[in-house]
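[09:14] KT: can someone run the structure on this one? pasting the chain below
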Amino acid sequence: MTNPGKLQQGMRHIPMSAPDLTDKEREAVGAVMQTPRLSMGPEVEGFEQSVARAVGARHAIAVNSGSAGLHLCVRAAGIRDGDWVITTPFSFVASANVLLYERATPIFVDVDPQTGNIDPELFATAVRDLESGSGRAERWLPRRGAQEQAALKALLSVDVFGQPADYDALIPVVEDHRLTLIEDSCEALGASYRSRPAGMQGDVGVFAFYPNKQITTAEGGMIVTDDDTLAEMMRALRNQGRAPGDTWLEHTYLGYNYRLNELSAALGRVQMTRLEELLQKRERVARWYGERLAEIAQVEVPQVVAPTTRMSWFVYVIRLSGEIDRSALVEQLEARGVPTRPYFTPIHLQPYFREQYGYEQGDFPVTEDLGRRSLALPFASTFSEEDVDYVCRQLHAVLRALD
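[09:31] RB: done, structure tokens below
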């Protein structure tokens, strides 16, 4: 069997992802280094303003990661010990972890097989059952670790891979049952749903800026909202609980050090001036992939729900035919210089979720099917058409060899 750590002779190496940086970003970061202000300064404010303008938000609150942003949303929404929050098991694990931080119970609802976003019909049924006060709620509760009678407080939706969820179907249910809607748009900056920007579908939204995202601050995130009260609370919580009017060492609330530094903010501020350029470049790379992979029978290419959605390409995730040995495919592609990643391992099957809540294989069949068959190919706005050609040729060659 091929050694995945050794590149075969004559093969190229393609990075899994790469940030798209120019001299403008480097100069902006360097300029901050010439000042005495490395935290809580004008670059953070400027970055916040640029994101707020881009999505039409009244408030943008910069934080040091998307996970931190989601956690502040959960805490500011008053979600507490034992509360139920509906979310999806097909996501990066942080979207469920932030509920555990506040000892809330994630109530998982399976996803739409096309988009990987939460299934609106299942969501509506789950809400009705959970609020019915009858035995129907048991269908949605984990086998252990959840209170049998608790308050359903929120929907934490996820815009998977940069495609917004079906909010026209979700929002009426949210409003009818007076739930808080937290939109995890950490993968979806620049996307839109029926001309409404991602991140602005609910009460609060969060973006993330890890190096493989649409824009990067190396590490960082941004909360957006039109709610003045939530914004004030989250600004306090990110800064050790220091409320407006508190002096330097006064702390009204139990808070966190979730601040974004000036260097990262300077990088993000310049990246935001290039947002449309970066989105178009990523869309071009996705188009190249789609054209080359469309004729490979064992591969299902990602589909954009149109005309409701503008996709903001975060990663390029294909789905393999069920008979393909994904582990063997990953190993042989690695040896040819093509790294890949499974996307996602279902959250409910992570070891600590199994241990705490008693989840088992088969609990969420669509999520588990997507988790078994999905594979992220190398993807970045910096890729050339030749890079995509190379990845697709190697993928096709390995699939033929495995057939």
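[09:33] KT: thanks! The mean pLDDT is 96.
[09:34] RB: yep, looked fine to me
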